Amino acid sequence: MTVRTILALLAALPLAACVGDDLTGPAATACRAAIAAQVGRGLSAVTVVTMTETQAGADIQAAVTGAEAPWTCRTDAAHRVLGVMYSGSEGAL
Fold first, then answer.
1. Cβ-based neighbours of 56, under 8 Å, separated by 6 or more
2. Tell me: the pLDDT tens digits for 35-83?
3. Domain map of the chain by residue range?
4. What does the alpha-carbon distance between residue 64 and residue 70 come to, in Å, rounded to a whole number?
């Protein structure tokens, strides 16, 4: 194994935590609906990209068709949306 390969594997480790989380579960579904409502689009325009479960709930990133950057959403442990935020420039909305 080369040093470059080892570094690439180490860089990918944080992403492995997202693989086991449910991208279609209650928290992701709630965030998808909240983001769609925020941008005034249908659910089909919002795709959950990553979800990380935390002790307090979940952190979710979603792509919206036409947006230049992902949206971020947080839920509590009962899957209630705590907040939705665009991670890019507001002028790009």
1. 76, 77
2. 999 999 999 999 999 999 999 999 999 999 999 999 999 999 999 999 9
3. 21-92
4. 7
Q: Does domain 21-92 have CATH number 1.10.3470?
A: no
Contact 86, 67 (CB under 8 A): yes
Radius of gyration of the chain (CA): 15
Count other Cβ atoms within 10 Å, centred on residue 31.
28
The whole-angstrom separation of Cα 51 and Cα 23 is 6
Q: Whole-model pTM above 0.85?
A: no
DSSP 90: G
Question: Do 46 and 22 form a contact (C-beta atoms < 8 A)?
Answer: no
**What kind and span of H or E run contains 17?**
helix 3-19
